[in-house]
Amino acid sequence: MFNKLFGKKEVKKEETLIAPLTGKIVNIEEVPDPTFAQKMMGDGIAIEPTEGVVVSPVDGEIVQFFHTKHAIGIQSEAGAEILIHVGLETVSMNGEGFEGHVNVGDKVKAGDKLLSFDLELIKEKAASTVTPIVITNGDAVESLDKRAASEATKGETSLLQVKMK
């Protein structure tokens, strides 16, 4: 009753994450980096990109954007904290080949362009192009359903269904 009187909006508890990149879907356990493969950062999925553009997988807010532009954190409207980490060992590139299109605090909609990167440069300078997409606040997640597709199209393919506690 008070929520209606004072206009507090209902927080959604469930949402679908769409693919932030175009490419081949990889199980998180198959990521060639133990930090991600063993889910130390959280559970999720990964994509081996075929193009260098990252879009938002959800409606939410940019809560972290590493100065090296290789990783970005988004908090979804339902409260999921999502980390998109472009490639493996890309932090050592010190931002070379990466261009940010958003800033911390920006509100984004699913499909909004977040960053772009030089895929060929990453192939040359980093350990891998595989890009993990993980939910870092797993303790707040009730369930995480992974969609069974082999290819992802950025802004279109449904990747994960997240239900928050």
From TrEMBL:
- Compartments (UniProt record): Cytoplasm
Q: Which InterPro entries match?
A: Dup_hybrid_motif, PTS_EIIA_1_perm, PTS_EIIA_component
A single BP term in Gene Ontology: phosphoenolpyruvate-dependent sugar phosphotransferase system
A GO-annotated cellular component: cytoplasm
Gene3D superfamilies for the chain: Glucose Permease (Domain IIA)
Coarse class of the primary localization is: cytoplasm
**Keyword annotations:** Kinase, Phosphotransferase system, Sugar transport, Transferase, Transport
Q: Which GO terms describe its molecular function?
A: kinase activity
Superkingdom of this protein's organism: Bacteria
Name by which UniProt lists this protein: PTS glucose transporter subunit IIA
| Species assigned in the record | Fictibacillus phosphorivorans
